[in-house]
């Protein structure tokens, strides 16, 4: 089956400065794909080029197997990074207006709007005007506006920013439900814990270029080295001298040892000196959050990056 969205070799420069180059990825029916990267990496520029808010200098965009100038707007939902809705309009009128723009039947849209308002904790707010809502509430309405017409592709640029934890859970549940029903979702977020929980695959961009592209499992297996956390009174310099230790972070009696990629955990544990003070010891894979920081701070070199 053709992917819902395919971008190939996307490049864009502002004046003489190339801000994205060779951006290539796919988003499939029913999957949640994360687009990640440090501030200024080029995520929103990639999304804006896909949306036709601006046009790429190079590259191709395909929607359901057909090459297009930009994705067909009636079939997609988009929550932009910049939030903003008409202030004096009633919530329900605004949602019906968006549905109408996408040629979605109004009767069905009204039912969906009331149902989604209820699911996102805004029951009874349908007749309020946008200016009467809090920022988080308005964001929920904007999210509903982006999915009211049951889009085949949904692009969410930082959907969780500014939401309280309860609202984040509601959004997560709804996003998962949409994917289960077959919507292809491209999601940009800085919250790595949410990405780990929600996304099937991820595309990470740094300085306008791909650094990782793969499933979360693949990324974890190939990228996430081990770390060992030891609770005990140990000298930093002693821990730093242990085999296969790349670096150590120490706070009080808690030391986190980041291990080299080639480490054999079995052998490594056996060779730990009896002189170390070990009250507790845990070994885990480093998290997506730590992978992200390693990349953003250029700790990992290009050779390790995954290919599509
Ligand atoms: N209209 C523009 N004119 C000139 N430069 C731009 C324009 N839009 C974006 N840029 C530059 O392109 C680069 C990528 O910006 P972009 O907004 O795509 O990053 P981002 O990954 O979405 O970042 P953030 O996480 O901060 O939202 C930045 O260096 C930014 O300054």
From TrEMBL:
Residues covered by the ABC transporter domain: 5-232
A Pfam family assignment: DrrA1-3_C
PANTHER family the record matches: ABC TRANSPORTER ATP-BINDING PROTEIN, ABC TRANSPORTER ATP-BINDING PROTEIN NATA
Entry protein name: ABC transporter ATP-binding protein
Gene3D superfamilies: P-loop containing nucleotide triphosphate hydrolases
Signal peptide limits: none
Keywords, ordered alphabetically: ATP-binding, Nucleotide-binding, Transport
Matches recorded under InterPro entries: AAA+_ATPase, ABC_transporter-like_ATP-bd, ABC_transporter-like_CS, ABC_transporter_ATP-binding, DrrA1/2-like_C, P-loop_NTPase
GO molecular function: ATP binding; ATP hydrolysis activity
PROSITE patterns: ABC_TRANSPORTER_1, ABC_TRANSPORTER_2
Similarity-based family: Belongs to the ABC transporter superfamily.
């Amino acid at each position: 089956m053709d992917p819902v969205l395919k971008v190939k070799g996307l490049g864009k420069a502002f004046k003489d400065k190339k801000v994205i180059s060779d951006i290539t990825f796919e988003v499939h029916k029913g999957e949640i794909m994360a687009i990640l990267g440090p501030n200024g990496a080029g995520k929103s520029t990639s999304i804006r080029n896909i949306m036709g808010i601006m046009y790429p200098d190079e590259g191709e965009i395909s929607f359901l197997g057909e090459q297009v100038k930009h994705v067909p707007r009636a079939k997609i939902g988009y929550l932009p990074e910049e939030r903003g809705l008409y202030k004096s309009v009633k919530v329900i009128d605004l949602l019906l207006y968006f549905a109408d723009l996408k040629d979605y039947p109004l009767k069905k849209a009204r039912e969906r709007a009331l149902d989604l308002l209820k699911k996102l904790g805004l029951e009874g707010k349908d007749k309020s005007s946008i200016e009467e809502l809090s920022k988080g509430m308005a964001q929920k309405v904007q999210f509903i506006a982006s999915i009211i017409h049951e889009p085949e592709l949904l692009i969410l640029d930082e959907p969780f920013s500014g939401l309280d934890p309860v609202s984040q859970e509601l959004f997560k549940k709804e996003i998962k439900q949409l994917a289960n029903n077959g919507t292809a979702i491209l999601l940009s977020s800085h919250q790595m814990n949410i990405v780990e929980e929600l996304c099937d695959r991820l595309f990470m961009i740094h300085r306008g270029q791909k650094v990782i592209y793969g499933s979360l499992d693949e990324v974890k297996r190939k990228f996430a080295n081990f770390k060992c956390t030891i609770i005990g009174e140990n000298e930093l310099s002693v821990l730093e001298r242990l085999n296969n230790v790349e670096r150590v972070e120490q706070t009080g009696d808690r030391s986190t040892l980041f291990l080299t990629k080639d480490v054999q955990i079995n052998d490594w544990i056996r060779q730990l000196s009896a002189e170390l003070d070990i009250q507790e010891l845990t070994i885990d894979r480093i998290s997506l959050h730590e992978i992200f920081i390693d990349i953003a701070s250029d700790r990992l070199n290009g050779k390790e990056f995954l290919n599509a």
